[in-house]
Amino acid sequence: MSGKHDNVGARNDDFARYDRVDKRQSYRLTESADDVFDEDYEIRTCDIAPVLAGGDREREAFAGELGAALEEIGFAILVGHGVSPELHEEVERVVEDLFTRHSLDEKLAFRARRHGAVNQGYFPIEETTDIHPDLVEGWVLCRRAFDLDGTGAVPLADFWPAPEYERALRALLSAQEPLILPIMQSVLTYLGCAPHLYDERLRATNVALRLNYYPPITPELGADGAGRLLGHEDTDLFTLLPAPRSEGLQVLDRRTFRWIRLDAPRGAIVLNTGDYMQRITNDRLPSTTHRVSRPRDPALAGRPRVSFPMNVYLGEDEWLEVLPGLGPARYAPIRAEAFHTQTTAKYYGDDYALPE
């Protein structure tokens, strides 16, 4: 049995040396019988429609709602975003087909390798990280995989088993990217900063789609107690996750150390903040711990689960600096690529980290 299986009982503290923001929460990476749940807490729902169609008053109101939700727990549920529910359903079918139609050998032809700061490509089950045997297959696709810069430097065939996958997921990116600036402007407004401070840095932003396929849980799969996706914090500014069909997403309230089962309605988008955001907001907006658990209903455990979060980063040569007006800076400026690789080295090994 590989060494990572020895880490099923590991805690986040075992890997704290890789953190580049302050994380005082302590938790076991997989779900445990000792976990305590808050069954009454509800993640706040924020309607972004008035912002997309409205004026200054609507933007101020939304900024207050969204900022309060993110400062409290780092998560919010977005409705009124204008992305077609039918598109999300179509992408769900496409993602499931990507993982199930092709053999393991065919998928391994696209095995993840490093492009810039991010490992892009296919991750077999139990191999999405070096530290923990998650029960999920992954496929990470960034700007290069869609040739969003129009350079043609990397053939699309290097990333895609068939062109219809690229077309469907490009449609998803095109539909969701218009949300990036309104969200960031709202965050900056809430924090008392100039709302357009990050506009230029995010116009051709570094985005990544992470496709997740959780196969049905069998007695053999995960018999050692592995979870579907380990407890973790995202490395990015923020993540947009179309609400999954199946239960499993859980959020750790760092104030109470209780877990919250996040239940978002179909068609909604779940928004959460990551390490980049905690760094530039001087710890004001947390990078909140979350995981994907095994479903409580045995019938659901026998079905696959699909998700496709979109991570929003800064360009690799941009600098992460504490925003003005948020008090004495707790963090020195750092280049985004160094910050990203030093953080994710816990997943891919110490050699993954780049110097500042």
Keywords:
single chain, 356 residues, alpha+beta, Jelly Rolls, 4-stranded antiparallel β-sheet, 16 strands, globular
Structural account:
The structure is a single chain. By secondary structure, this protein is α+β, with helices and mostly antiparallel strands. The chain has a single domain, classed as Jelly Rolls (Sandwich), CATH 2.60.120.330. 28% of the residues lie in helices and 19% in strands. The protein contains 11 helices and 16 strands. The protein has helices at residues 49-53, 56-73, 85-101, 104-108, 143-146, 163-176, 180-190, 199-202, 275-280, 298-301, 336-348; strands spanning 45-47, 75-79, 113-115, 118-123, 137-142, 207-214, 229-232, 238-242, 249-253, 258-261, 269-273, 290-292, 305-307, 310-312, 319-320, 334-335. The strands form 3 sheets. Strands 1, 2, 3, 4, 5, 6, 8, 11, 13 and 14 form a 10-stranded mixed β-sheet that branches. Strand 3 and strand 4 form a beta hairpin. It is globular. 42% of the residues are buried. The model has no long low-confidence stretch (mean pLDDT 92).
Q: Helix and strand succession?
A: EHHEHHEEEHHHHEEEEEEHEHEEEEH
Specify the number of helices.
Answer: 11
Could you give the distance between the termini? 36 Å
Biggest sheet record: 10 strands, mixed
Query: What number of structural domains do the residues give?
Result: 1
Q: How many individual β-strands?
A: 16
Return the CATH architecture.
Sandwich
**Arithmetic mean of pLDDT:** 92
Q: Please state the structural category.
A: alpha+beta
CATH topology, by name, is: Jelly Rolls
Apparent shape:
globular
Rg measurement, Å: 19 Å
